[in-house]
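User: We ran a pulldown and think these components assemble together. Before we commit to crystallization trials, I'd like a predicted model of the whole complex to look at. Sequences follow.
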Amino acid sequence: MQSIPIPFPSDWLTEPPRVVVTGNGPYAAALAFVFGAQRVKTEALCSCPPTNSVMSLPRVLSNVEYVIHVIGSTQSASDALNLYEMMWRWLEKLSSQGADHEVCFMFVVPRESESRYERAIATGLAVDSINPSMHGHAVAKTGAPLEEIIRLLRKTLPCDLVRLQARRAAEGKRKSLAQLSRAILVDDPATIVAAAHEVAVVFRGKEHDLDLFCRPPGHANGNRLRFILKSLVTTAITPDCRLELAKEIPLLLS
Amino acid sequence: MITLHLRDRVIDTAVTQLNFDTSVFGAFVRHVMLMHEELPIYSDMVRSKDIEKRSSPNRVFIVHTADREGWIKAVTEDKLQGHLVLTSRVGVTQRDVQVKNNHIHACEWRPDEFAEPPEPLQKWLEQIKAGDINRIDWSLLLRDPHGHHEALLALRLLCEAYQMSNGAESVPVGGLLIRAPQGLSDWLAPFRTNSKTVLKESVADLMSRGRKEAAGVFAAIEARSNKVDDAIREFLKVTEGE
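Assistant: Here's a predicted model for the assembly, 496 residues in total across the polymer chains.
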């Protein structure tokens, strides 16, 4: 009989983690060691637990209080946000509290990253800036002193997915994209153009932020979305084109 | 497109801009311009087909683009004879250019960093200027090609945890339990790849700085000597600011 592989490290069955560190390389491994954490490599994290599994999965993540994402020097803010989303999929599936599970998140970002990297993460989390004591997320740089990492983690207020989703639903950028997704389903060119125009207005001067709202690969899909938006406001939409876009846009957006 | 002709005509360098912030790109171009004497400037946008048409084994094209995926896809059909370096506003990552063609390179340095190039980038620019295509170290385009810096930061973290616990196995700090490495295997564990045995010498060699001091830490741990604290202090001192 073929055994069904469990979608998480087997250690978690005997020792449910309190701290999870995600990331590759020695720095992530050292951080996991210091916090007595279970480490999940990026590739494993992205192979999310199955969503339509017939078997019920053990709630091995019910004790998780902290998640530390170590972002590699080759990863963009869009990649970091994708890992964050993946972690929530894991928690939804493997924690008894599901979307109500409260966790403190920390992003350990590449040390050479600029302030716009942190701003991009804040945008993806639908906040103006990262404030650990308000929204449940902290940002540190790779190589920050251990004392500083501990201080930030202690300061971080836990957050759950429900609150994050509510905040995102009320946020202008996401709202405009949701409006576009709805508009493209209806055969009304004026509404579609108006919705595309609204997205363009909301993202004006921050067009690169579209990457943060796209499925991975964020940048490639962001490029495609920017192209579509430009086409929608500059060229006439044929019925065939609308049908194609009605299929494509939801696949681009996260 | 900007085509740069070197005096000895060994390397031509082309740069393109596609929908990008001109001020950032400007710093990059200015730097490259300063390096070369002749500089015909073309304002047309370059496409992958142009690169293929113009490519020869001794040419390097630097392409500044938002559409790196498009470029990688378009230029992987063995039509490129020279080398293609992809840059972008935020730096192209090595992961982005995991292609089979070893003539396509990621430039992890951002264009604005060309204005005051860090040491590896400066070295790469000098190699480009020297004009011998066979003597260019493409790994200099990566920030930490061999993971040396990351290894150093990992060891620093272990040292800080050891100091925090005063050598004890663990110490509670504000509700968090901080674990400190004890035996040599704990110290080397983060550097192990694919469950292979890892040697203390090879880990010390990974350090971008403080190799001798890292070896000193491992030696003191292995010998269970009372010099562990001193060795750790020394390693942290020489790698401070990294």
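The beta strands of chain B are 2-5, 12-17, 60-64, 83-87, 104-106, 170-173, 176-179. That may be worth checking against your pulldown data before setting up trials.

User: Thanks, that helps.
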